[in-house]
Amino acid sequence: MIEGQTAAMSEDPVELPEWTGDLETDVIAAIRTVFDPEIPVNVYDLGLIYRLDVSNPDLIDIDMTLTAPGCPVAGEMLRQVEKAALLAPGTKAAKVNLVFDPPWDAQKMSDEAKLELGML
Fold first, then answer.
1. Pair 88, 27: CB distance under 8 Å
2. Is 58 part of a structural domain of the chain?
3. How many folded domains does the chain comprise?
4. CA dist., res. 112 & res. 10, Å (int)
5. Predicted model pTM
6. How far is Cα of residue 43 from the mean position of the Cα atoms in its chain?
7. Is 109 a domain residue?
């Protein structure tokens, strides 16, 4: 678990979203700053976030999967999602749980992601 209000996403600067004041909306916007390194789409629109519980701002609980179980950057992606969630105002801590049930498939992607990848 990573605690604190500020976090760096990576070595590259990240453009932060405009905050709305709605915790769930802001956490989603922050998570959308994390991109899969192999697919040029953010992890939220890829459908990798299976559950987002913001009912307790002291601990945002996130279930996340990967496009493939053997993803070589799995640990880094989970840390990036945790750090991103912490960027949302009002968030004190975040925990990302890696899950593989149900398995990810392209049907879980948002229409925006499918359009970006030429699938629509």
1. yes
2. yes
3. 1
4. 24
5. 0.84
6. 5
7. no
